[in-house]
Structures are given as C-alpha cells and as structure tokens.
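Sharing a chain and its predicted structure for anyone who wants a worked example. Both blocks are below, sequence first, tokens second.
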Amino acid sequence: MKPNILVDAPHHNAEVPLWHEREGCLYWTDIPQGQVFRHYPHNNKTEQIYSGEPVGGMTIQTDGSLLLFKTKGTIQRWHKGNITTLIAEIPAERNTRFNDAIADPQGRVFSGTVATPKRSGHLYRLDCDGSLHQILDGLIMPNGMGFTPDRQQFYFTDSERRIIYRFKYDRATGKLSNRRIFVVTPTDEGVPDGLTVDAEGYVWSARWNGGHLFRYNPQGQEVGRIAFPARKISSVIFGGDNCDRVYVTTAGGDYRTQEGSGAGAIFQLQPGVRGVPEFPSRILL
C-alpha cells in the first residue's frame, strides 16, 4: 500500500478531496491560496477551476455542480465557472471560515466553522430547502466527517482536541445525538484531520503533523497506518471507477525542506478495499 504521487505540486494546504463520479476526476482546494483544482487520471490533466475567497469545504450537487463553503459563512454554487450565492454570510462567522463539509444520505450538508479568540467553532446543517441550522457549539477545529455503512451513525473530528466522535444519526431529520468518543489520538502523533469510511465500515483518518494515514476498525482500534513523505496529511477520500483508490491531500509545500519531500502533493494508493461513493448534496437554489 505504498502511496504514489498523483499531482506533484507544492500546495500550501491541499484539502477536502472529492471524487466526481460523473466527470471521472478528483477535485480539491488549496485553502490559504483560495484555489480549487481538478485532476483527470485518465489523461493526467490537472487544471485550476476557481480563484477567490478561500474554500474550506465542498460537496457535489446532483446536477454535477459544486457547493462551496467559504469564509464569513458564505455558501455558493460553482457551475462551469459561474457563481451563484446561496448564503452571502453568517454575521456571527464574519471572522472565520468553514472547514470541511459532507453531504448526508438525504442531500443535506454538514459543515463546521473554525474557532476564533472570541467565538467557539460550530457545526451547521444546511437542509435541502436552503435553511441553515447550528447544531453543535464549543468546537475548536471542526474537521473530518463520515457515515457508517448502515447510515445510523456519524463520525465527526475536532482536530485540536485530538478527538474523533461518533454520534447517533437520524436520517429522517438529520439530527445528531448520543455523542461518544471514538478515538483520541496520542499527543506525539499529530492531530486527526480529514476522514472517510470504507465499505467495510473502517475509518480512514489523515494525521496532520503525524505523517501517516490511519485505519481504525468500528470499535476504534487502530488496524493499520501508512507512511507518507510529508508531515501534514490533511484529508482522504475514496474514488476511481470502482471506488477502489484512495486519494490523499497534504500540506506544507512551501516548506518542503522541513515538511517532507512530498509535502503539498496529492497522493493515490490502492488499499485492496473499496470505499463508498460520497453522497451528493441536494440543496435547492
């Protein structure tokens, strides 16, 4: 399961990879640079498709367009270069940004905001009718999320606390309840960042400043780790024609001497297990 470089670019902080099944390509964002890219594995073509306010989270709509979660609580739709604004800003989030996003089985979207010195981080749920609901507070760095294969539980990461939580998830309402600790990462192994869940129900968690991708069984026990030539492993997603490839984003490309020879690059590997395609968002505009 040795990782190979797919795109050797020194991104400052490549994040939130998304496999676009209809287009057969991988999307990701370089958050501090305010850029979004896509890569087509079949012809090895990479292109930048967006430049502007930083994008901290993305989902793919049912029509193939992208839903962008940005600074100040802004939520916009990107479609072939055209931008449509759904929410111009969240007044209470003017001094921060969204970080990570995931669509649920019904097409709602969960996305968190980063804490500031004056305000804690929050987790929001954007319902299909476009209404926005704050569902968690007291967070520091909301991050990687995923659903169990039976769609009855929800994983959520608060990076700075080094905790991955597991909630009971109500598909009918989108409600989260019964928060429990799934994993607490050791203090000397970095912090948990983005995550995804494979078809066997195992959790894959990227480790920022930990240089590895970790795999946990449904009981929260580590069953494997994969080393990368980069310290800051930022996120992970399954993709490819058979959903049997793992794509991994990294950060620190502007300091490769300190961060590793592959810092900032996009990696791929074939782990011998399949993932589950991400759910599309179904937000009415």
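Comments welcome. The chain has one domain: 4-269.
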